[in-house]
Amino acid sequence: MQITSDVLLDYFSNELFIDTSDVANDTLLFSSGLIDSFNMINLIMFIEETCQTKVKPPEITLDNLDSIDRILSFLEKRAA
Predict the structure, then answer these.
(1) Is 52 left (phi over 0), alpha (psi -120 to 50) or beta?
(2) Tens-digit pLDDT profile for residues 9-64
(3) How far is CA 54 from the centre of its chain?
(4) What is the pLDDT of residue 2?
(5) Are the C-beta atoms of 51 and 3 separated by less than 8 Å?
(6) What is the CATH number of domain 5-79?
(7) pLDDT classification of 79: cutoffs 50, 70, 90
(8) Three-state SS across 29-70?
(9) Whole-angstrom distance, CA of residue 1 vs CA of residue 28
(10) pTM score, whole prediction
(11) In this structure, are residues 61 and 53 in contact, taking their beta carbons and an 8 Å threshold?
């Protein structure tokens, strides 16, 4: 399965119980406190399971994972 912004929004809503009505692709997820460190780990596990890949510890940065846009860009770079 390919991860899209809609897939991420569904995950945030259904699995992390986040109200996504105000979440845009550039909304900072961790920096704004929308998700905490526990939810960040769950998000990484979701990415790994969905994309059949492993996110390496050095890749777990706000530059890669702090918004939907950043997550999609990170995954696009990894796929190239």
Answers:
(1) left
(2) 999 999 999 999 999 999 999 999 999 999 999 999 999 999 999 999 999 999 99
(3) 14
(4) 87
(5) yes
(6) 1.10.1200.10
(7) confident
(8) CCCCCCCCHHHHHHHHHHHHHHHCCCCCHHHCCHHHHCCHHH
(9) 24
(10) 0.93
(11) no
